[in-house]
Write a structure and sequence with these properties.
34% of the residues lie in helices and 26% in strands. It contains three helices and four strands, in the order βαββαβα. The protein is globular, with a radius of gyration of 12 Å. By secondary structure, it is an alpha+beta fold. InterPro entries: HPr, HPr-like, HPr-like_sf, PTS_HPr_His_P_site, PTS_HPr_Ser_P_site. It comes from Luteimonas notoginsengisoli.
């Protein structure tokens, strides 16, 4: 299992478009993935689950991935957060 602390640093937070990008980034991977924020843990491969976090700008989140391709999945999600979901220049 890999656990990473991430920060929602894009202006709009985990809104619909950012959440869709996150779920699409995780789709090819077979591992299980969860996100935890504000005391709530959700399936990171579920658009509705991630939207329920209501994680706005500046919200710290914990990504947990567990499975055969966990390292690649964790890297893909970390890179997406670092790029601020490709929303800002």
């Amino acid at each position: 299992m890999i656990e990473r602390q991430l920060l929602v640093d894009n202006k709009l937070g985990l809104h619909a478009r950012a959440t869709a990008k996150l779920v699409q980034a995780l789709a090819p991977y077979r591992c299980n993935a969860t996100l935890t924020a504000k005391g709530r843990e959700v399936n990171a491969k579920s658009i509705m689950g991630v939207m329920l976090l209501a994680a706005g700008h500046g919200t710290p989140v914990v990504l947990r991935v567990d499975g055969e391709d966990e390292s690649a999945a964790a890297q893909a999600v970390s890179a997406l957060f670092e790029r601020r979901f490709d929303e800002e220049s």
